[in-house]
Amino acid sequence: MARSNVRFWPIADDGPDVRCGSANVRLRPRADTAFPERRWKSGRNQYSLYDAGLCMKPSELSNWVDAYITVQGDDGLDAHHPHWWAIERFFELMPEHPDECWQAILAILDREPSEAVLDILGAGPLEDLIHQHGAAFIEKIEFEARENPPFKALLDRVWESSTPEIWMRVQRARGEI
Known about the structure:
The chain has six helices and two strands. It is mainly alpha-helical.
């Protein structure tokens, strides 16, 4: 097996802490960073997921969230809408980068969007996340439903998906079982 030429840099103590997936990371952009496979260390000597191209900058997440709320608030039916890319980003990232989609779902929910946006968020990105990555995310989903009443309400907008075992756990998190 060939050794990768990808380099990782320790994170400086002065960088901002950011939540990326299930990890707290410090972001320190490097212009000469390649996009390596998902390898990083946890704990005090973490490596930046942003450096590795595996976590978006907070400003990128905020722009995505704003654009998604805007386009879905405008009915989200026009592929020529200037913010249509925000809808497409979920489709592009969901297969291989579900942590970023999870972050966006929670960030959208935190903005307290309209009921119409919540309907689409639940029956769209959250449902897709459960269907495609339910086994990997069910514990996060259960925790979030216990600790975050708006998230628990968002689960009510999800249609049955994933495996029967995962779906039963989603129903339990919704308070149906």
